[in-house]
Amino acid sequence: MRKLLVLALVGLVAQLIDGSLGMAYGLTSSTLLLVAGVAPAAASASVHLAEIGTTLAAGVAHWRFGNVDWRVVSRIAVPGAIGAFAGATVLSSISTESAAPWMAGILFTLGAYLLVRFARPLRTDRVGGRLRGRFLSPLGLFAGFVDATGGGGWGPVATPALLVAGRLEPRKVIGSVDTAEFVVAGAASVGFLIGLGTEGFLLPTVAALLIGGLIAAPLAAWLVRIVPAQLLGAAVGGVIVLTNARTLMRSAELDGPVRPTLYALLAAGWLAALVLAVRALRRTRQARATAAASMNAGPAVAPAEVGPVAPVGSPAVAVDLAATGTSAPR
Question: Using CA atoms, how far apart are residues 42 and 30, in angstroms rounded to an integer?
């Protein structure tokens, strides 16, 4: 019972992180199960079965808070399901540990890019553009395969790729990725069921992770709506960097004082990026307040004399977009 309570707490924390950052449920839960001695295939199978419930709750919560772009979900979920089914089938028979360093290197690079990007004032000229299917479909296929073979990875692959694209505001990236993961988790579970049978699922563990995740899902969807995009992007980048640095250092067989030193440097870089993100957010809000004050202080103009409405790309609207993280001027 004590072990199940701990697993439920892990599920709650993992879903809180996943729902607010768009990643880490599978990574957190799978890591704990592997440390406990569960076989990689059984760990991934159990986590994905629990994710069917948690991602459904998270998707509904994100939808209610307006965090879902259904076009993105429809273009990324089906390829993701195909990749997840293939990955589950592969993991049921062989190991993919040899690919871990390469994957960690790619994710580490994306995370570092996000730290740099969100440490500076956000660009708004691309927000609101359309993400093409020829980008979303391969991304979903690749992310789904990585997710099933690694026990987690849908969020760490899909979320930073969509954030780097810059055409969808961060809260909608996270909400769309979490919603699409319901289909991905279902396909992965079917693949594991075919490859491992029912004995491959640890049902008490699944139940504990599911209960914790269901409790956290609505809170996470609310949290992602109120956290500023500037800080959210920097937080996501730091999580990706630190998570994948561990895999890279292990594959390079770095021991002794080297690992703590590298961790300290990465943590310092993450902290610096967060500080810069806070400063950039403050400057953006100050510019927005100044622009609003100057508009309110202007002389009253008769309706007939009012000029055309400022376009979306104008400085006043751009400042508003950057400050709120929304795709429409307020």
Answer: 10
